[in-house]
């Protein structure tokens, strides 16, 4: 038994009893209300989900299992996944055990590649990624065990197996798709001696003489791993999984949500804007040039991509981590210099403008320029990178949900007429 599974087997019964007793004592307590604006506005701010893996306080940013993301930026993704699932940081031995376990599961079945090879050559990488995951559903341990007859208290065990199998294969799948879709040559097989994200970097085939691209991948996978339970990808995965659909169905569904322009495409939009600034000024603009350009952008009714956040009201600590990485690795890169200058200039402009609730940068303002610096310039692929990382959060939430025996998600919907009648009652 792996150290991760052993840890869960010991802790789940107590967690299950704790939640059961808590609901028995406080099940009727009201923890949220909903306004008409929230009902029509995407349920923004309505407290109706429980997610124990992470939280995003507006004044602090991402906190994973009680640990601020800044404290985790130098950890391997394997350690963060262990933390997400169990609530405890693993020791070095447990991290090595998990890395070894994942590497033993990393091979993608041949039939998946045959399916992807039949797709149109210009298929979107996210479609290929989601389809590749869905194609592997026949491998689901949970579905097989469920069909054989499985006690509800044991649902977490085969779910963990599915999630480990899936997470292990994602770098292999994603890297193979990159090389296939963008004509980079033959697929590169996984290396059992490397860590999860380091091997992903190698399988992409990006030149990395310094090893810093691998470090970027490790950082990227940690920073994007989880972000509460209400974002589209996490919520979609939870909703689909709550029907006892296995991890392949649920994660594929979550990734389809991540592919939307309002969710996972933000780093592409930010990078395009930075490149546009570079092209307009023939390099790095002066502070005054950038300030004027920002005002021209805002006065034309457009926004500054990468600035503002649905939840945060401070600089995203994930942006700070990428910013610091760039300062160390590529301080002379014009795109990085523009990102740094934008960070210096734009918040003041947005404050003076007055309409932005949050004038500070989010994670997407910096990640794209770093990928571009290392030669990974195919914008369409960036969301796949996001997806490989976010799968850790989706899977950890799914494992915890099955461990706690959470119910199928089924909120009550009402009609506009009903809302009008309720408002009329005063």
TrEMBL record:
| Keyword terms of this UniProt record | Acyltransferase, Transferase
* Pathway participation: Carbohydrate metabolism; tricarboxylic acid cycle
Which is a Pfam family this sequence falls into? Citrate_synt
InterPro entries, alphabetically? Citrate_synth-like_lrg_a-sub, Citrate_synth-like_sm_a-sub, Citrate_synthase, Citrate_synthase_AS, Citrate_synthase_sf
Q: What is its EC number?
A: 2.3.3.16
Species whose genome carries this gene: candidate division TA06 bacterium DG_78
Q: What class of enzyme is it?
A: transferase
Task: Please state which protein family the record places this protein in.
Answer: Belongs to the citrate synthase family.
List, alphabetically, the PANTHER family matched: CITRATE SYNTHASE, CITRATE SYNTHASE, MITOCHONDRIAL
Q: Name one GO biological process term.
A: carbohydrate metabolic process
What is the protein named? Answer: citrate synthase (unknown stereospecificity)
Q: Name one GO molecular function term.
A: citrate synthase activity
Q: Which domain of life is it from?
A: Bacteria
């Amino acid at each position: 038994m792996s150290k991760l599974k052993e840890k869960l087997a010991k802790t789940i019964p107590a967690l299950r009893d704790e939640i059961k007793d808590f609901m028995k004592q406080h099940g009727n307590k009201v923890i949220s209300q909903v306004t008409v604006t929230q009902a029509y506005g995407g349920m923004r701010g309505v407290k109706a989900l429980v997610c124990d893996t992470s939280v995003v306080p507006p004044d602090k940013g991402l906190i994973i299992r009680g640990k601020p993301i800044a404290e985790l930026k130098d950890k391997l993704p394997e350690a963060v996944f262990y933390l997400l699932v169990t609530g405890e940081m693993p020791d070095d031995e447990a991290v090595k055990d998990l890395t070894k376990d994942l590497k033993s599961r990393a091979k993608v079945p041949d039939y998946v590649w045959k399916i992807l090879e039949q797709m149109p050559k210009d298929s979107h990488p996210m479609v290929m990624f989601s389809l590749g995951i869905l194609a592997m559903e026949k491998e689901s341990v949970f579905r097989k065990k469920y069909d054989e007859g499985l006690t509800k208290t044991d649902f977490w065990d085969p779910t963990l197996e599915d999630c480990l199998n899936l997470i292990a294969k994602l770098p292999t799948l994603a890297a193979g798709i990159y090389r296939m879709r963008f004509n980079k040559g033959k697929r590169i097989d996984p290396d059992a001696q490397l860590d999860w994200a380091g091997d992903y970097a190698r399988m992409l085939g990006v030149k990395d003489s310094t090893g810093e691209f691998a470090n970027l991948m490790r950082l990227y996978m940690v920073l994007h791993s989880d972000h509460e339970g209400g974002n589209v990808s996490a919520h979609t995965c939870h909703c689909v999984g709550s029907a006892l659909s296995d991890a392949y169905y649920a994660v594929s569904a979550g990734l389809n949500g991540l592919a939307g322009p309002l969710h996972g495409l933000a780093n592409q939009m930010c990078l395009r804007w930075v490149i546009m600034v570079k092209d307009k000024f023939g390099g790095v603009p002066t502070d005054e040039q950038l300030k004027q350009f920002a005002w021209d952008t805002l006065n034309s009714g457009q926004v500054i991509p990468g600035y503002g956040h649905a939840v945060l009201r401070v600089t995203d600590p994930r942006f700070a981590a990428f910013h610091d990485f760039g300062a160390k690795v590529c301080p002379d890169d014009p795109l990085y210099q523009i990102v740094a200058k934008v960070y210096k200039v734009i918040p003041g402009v947005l404050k003076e403008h007055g309409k932005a609730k949050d004038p500070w940068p989010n994670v997407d303002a910096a990640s794209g320029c770093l990928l571009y610096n290392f030669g990974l310039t195919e914008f369409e692929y960036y969301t796949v990178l996001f997806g490989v990382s976010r799968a850790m959060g989706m899977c950890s939430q799914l494992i915890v949900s099955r461990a706690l025996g959470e119910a199928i998600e089924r909120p009550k919907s009402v009609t506009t007429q009903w809302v009008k009648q309720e408002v009329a009652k005063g």
